[in-house]
Amino acid sequence: MPESKKRKTHPHHHSDFIPHVKKKKSVTPYTMLFFALFAAGIAFFAMGSNAYWLIGLSVLIGLGVGYYAGLQVDKAIAERGNR
After folding, report:
1. Rounded Cα–Cα distance for residues 9 and 3 (Å)
2. pTM of this prediction?
3. Helices (H), the chain
């Protein structure tokens, strides 16, 4: 039987290690969802279930407000991390 301690190991390809920067997570999608649901809820309770177009419009406005609010939160977190 061959003795495994005397066998030569296989040569392994070693590539240069390049550290990858982790992509920072964003809160923008979460704020967009929150503001869209919040705006749809306000429109639903204010107008009732008759005006679906108003609920849809409020969702779009909520998405826009949530997007810009999320960008501001991300910017504030980035500035706080640089201290």
Report:
1. 13
2. 0.64
3. 28-47, 52-81
